[in-house]
Amino acid sequence: MSKPNFWRLKRKAKDNAQSVDVKTPKISQKTISSFFRSKPEPTNLLGGQSEKEDSESSQSSSQPKRQKLQDESCALTLEKVPVKLSDSALSKLQSFSTSSKSYEDNETIQSNLRPAKNIPKTSSACNGGRTKPDDDSENEDDPDTVVSSNIKFDAFRSNSQGKRSSQNVVCQGKTGKVKYTPLEQQVMDLWKQHPGILLFIECGYKYRFFGNDAEIAAQELNIYAHMDHNFMTASIPVHRLHAHVARLVEKGHKVGIVKQSETAALKAMSDNKNAPFTRKLENLFTRATLIGEDVDSIDQQNLLLDGVLSAGHIFCLNETHQDAKTTNIIFVAINPSTGECTYEQFSDNSGREELHKRLQMINPAEILCPPAVSKDTERLLNHSQARIEKLPLEWFETTSALTRVTSYFAKGNYEAGALEGLTDLPSPVLACLAAIQQHLEEFGLHRAIRPDCLQALPSGKGFLHLDSSTIRNLQLFTNDCGSGEGSLFWALNHTKTKFGARLLHKWIAQPVCNREVLEDRQEKLTELLQTDHEILTQLKGILSNLPDIEKGLTTILHNKCNPIQYYTILEALCTMRSDLLSLSTFVEQENNCPLLFQLIKETVALLDDVQAYRDNINVTAAKEGNKTKLLKDFSAFPNVLKFMSDIKDTTGALDDLRPEIASKLSLFSVQYTSVSGQEYLIEVKNTNAKCVPANWRKISSTKQVGRYRPPAVDKLFGELQCLREMLKTECNQAWIGLLQEFSQQYFRHKQAVNKVATMDVLLSLAHVAQQEGYCRPKIVEGDNCKIIIKKGRHPVIPLLLASAGQFVPNDTQLDSAGECCMVLSGPNMGGKSCYIRQVALIALLAHIGSYVPAEYAEISLLDSIFTRMGARDELFHGRSTLMVELEETAAILQKVSRNSLVLLDELGRGTGSCDGSAIACATLRHIAIEINCLSLFVTHYPSVMDTANELDKKAANYHMSFVLHNQDETEFLTFLYEVTKGAADRSYGINVARLANLDRNLLQRAATIAADLEKQARQRRDLRHSFSAMWNEHQH
């Protein structure tokens, strides 16, 4: 049925209006064009635009987006005019309405049909220029979608700004139901099958978004969205898929990639060649599962392997309540990109300090939990940077957890001992493991969980305990501004590989309390320091050229890599093996590096099977991504060889047709021509066109020649295309089989990578140990805990200074059998906090097996380091500065032991001096006498210093030395930054106020008040001492 003519409708409406004495203002062509966003051609005004026209008008930067309406009133009224409109025309008229009309009583569809809002009108670079219509949208406007409607145009009006008025366009069909195109119906089916997922839908050489997904994509990606038939739509080119997926995932969206599951050649040979392409969801991505070739283009593979597009940990937790104050928390954490999998079960208080520590240590990208968790846990999770997803409660069922986990692992080829170890896991841990398995299976990453890689989080016995406050206060990984510069990890990290840097991070986050392990690391460091410089240079050169092999192996395990990534990993492994083998010969001849030689020898032995896989790869095909020519030997895949043979026979048959074709054209011989992707064409000059048989199909032509395809060639070429597509499908299956075969040695290759990472970390620590003033600490065991440091220095601050020689070294001597507590006082900005951090960091370095910045260090094995430093509140928890300070102190006192190191910086300063000093004095007495642990106590309270004097032989007063100058009745300080025996008599805070440029008159007034207050305090203190002396004399 032909589409209606708008001018005829206008004339008829005008006649009707005149018959009832209704004045109808004229409508200019400019007004009509502006409403329908098309060229001013009357034959297409109600028929809607094609996708190509819409793309050209919306994306061309040279054409205006929409013409503004002037002061023309358009009160056109058409009553009782039966008009048959296409669905496209109806949808465009409905798009002018500002009402949110529902098209279908389905919640999922309604959410994707809501009107567009705040959609950017500027096209991005990836959407600029002309866009070719996709394969499905060209023929989807079929006659069956045309409905009869009574149309009323209710006062199309415009204001001075060119915006539409709030009056609606009534557009209601007789059937009362909108007809959807085949592609739209397919999209709606996908929405029903995959709710809550932002879908990239492959259409030709583009990925398209529809409905609400298009609105989100337009806002997040800054691309253009427009109305097409019944839905808003936007699109991106195929080659930019990885970039846009990464951007949407980073913003917290769950993204799905829907691909065409059949090709044009196979579709043309099938029975449903008039139906849309079959499509299905191929991949899902979140922030923690950003793994696979769809998030990385072939020319960007190094970015993925180097960790620029990197997935993070998935943290699955559950909780049970022991009592009103204690909660039992269970978690399983896995990094799908590296295969690292840990679990732990622990008790936590209402502050969730322990859970906070684990989250800070693991830094997950995604957190999974049951639908309902406690308020304290939910409050902590909501303030994390991770994406949170709540899983169904039945996934955490403990009764069937063991059955689900073992049934899953039974499918793999694992050793019996590995599966037997699962029975030793607590049932809540198994429940979390089963939940995270089911979650990863949705993403195709379930192979990441392997029973031989499942380990308990090393935070118990054998490891130095560091809570979240200690990690933050000691600035182990970030400074106070959140940057990595100035942290301990920044100072130690001289690794050459990404997996080496991750291992160093793990060593710092999980220090060891095992003397044998620490001394083994120290022996290897000492050996590296004594090794010939040429050997170390060669080893660093080998490591510096390696991609992130650890992540690459896991990507292969998930069957998510493309050929070039697979080849890159194989090439890296083979090159590393050959280079290490050559280096091992040189090291063996030196005969002074037995530990290094052993590491290299073990690594080479674990990679002896890689060369065979590498030799079977066609490098050119791998770089092109051509899986049909990827392997030099396809003998392991007989189906591939069969299709190759059939293709060869078909091409032979095509070649056999050439003599017959030449005779029909009266030529001696002919050759097939390929033009613009069209193969097996017969090129005939236009002067000889009369010789071409009538049944030959003309493909293309120029001014000089015409290109034809005879019926026999056309038939064989169709068969050839079908065989090629079937070969591609079979080669894809062979590719998956190849990856699975290679992944059977995953654990073996992972061990080799871990050994290389260990060498990388040891080389990094050796580089640090070569600096001036570093020594090998002596690790001691025994009943008494001690820290003895001579001329110790901060491991980070000298690196930040213009000259490292400016840093003043200091001694430390703490012994639980004697003086176990240092009470440190002195002027503000004198270096007190820096000094106590320095002691803690030196102790921490000793527990990772590193050399320490000191002339001499003797350090006992500690079980924990606790810190209470700084002043901060937690408004989101409803806790003041003092409350945070005292809760942290209470948590320390509950967990501290005789073998702990405690740092308390100005405890009690968040309240009045009486209460604050009382709390500080009581705490000092408790940790020095009752607990008898090593501690450093910074204070400005004189009463705390007096308490230290009373704790004879257990605590002693020290201060940061300085020189006092008087100039024009003003005091000036010169900081010496040296720890000196004895207490400081004043804090000299006014000196800091002067450095902060406070007003001079204000400073003079403050100095007068301070002098009066200090005089009164001194008199009270002298009176108290006199009374104490008299009382003691009376007692004797």
From TrEMBL:
Ranges annotated as biased composition (Polar residues): 16-36
KW DNA damage (keyword) present: yes
Places the protein is found: Nucleus
GO biological process, alphabetically ordered: mismatch repair; mitotic recombination
Molecular function per GO: ATP binding; ATP-dependent DNA damage sensor activity; mismatched DNA binding
PANTHER family, per database record: DNA MISMATCH REPAIR PROTEIN MSH3, DNA MISMATCH REPAIR PROTEIN MUTS FAMILY MEMBER
GO cellular component assignments: nucleus
First and last residue of the signal peptide: none
Biased amino acid composition, Acidic residues: 135-144
Region called Disordered, residue ranges: 1-73, 95-150
Originating organism: Frankliniella occidentalis (Western flower thrips)
InterPro entries: DNA_mismatch_repair_MutS-lik_N, DNA_mismatch_repair_MutS/MSH, DNA_mismatch_repair_MutS_C, DNA_mismatch_repair_MutS_clamp, DNA_mismatch_repair_MutS_core, DNA_mismatch_repair_MutS_N, DNA_mismatch_repair_MutS_sf, DNA_mmatch_repair_MutS_con_dom
Domain DNA mismatch repair proteins mutS family: 900-916
Function: Component of the post-replicative DNA mismatch repair system (MMR).
Main location: nucleus
Keyword DNA repair on entry: yes
Family: Belongs to the DNA mismatch repair MutS family. MSH3 subfamily.
Protein's name according to its UniProt entry: DNA mismatch repair protein MSH3
Keyword field: ATP-binding, DNA damage, DNA repair, DNA-binding, Nucleotide-binding, Nucleus
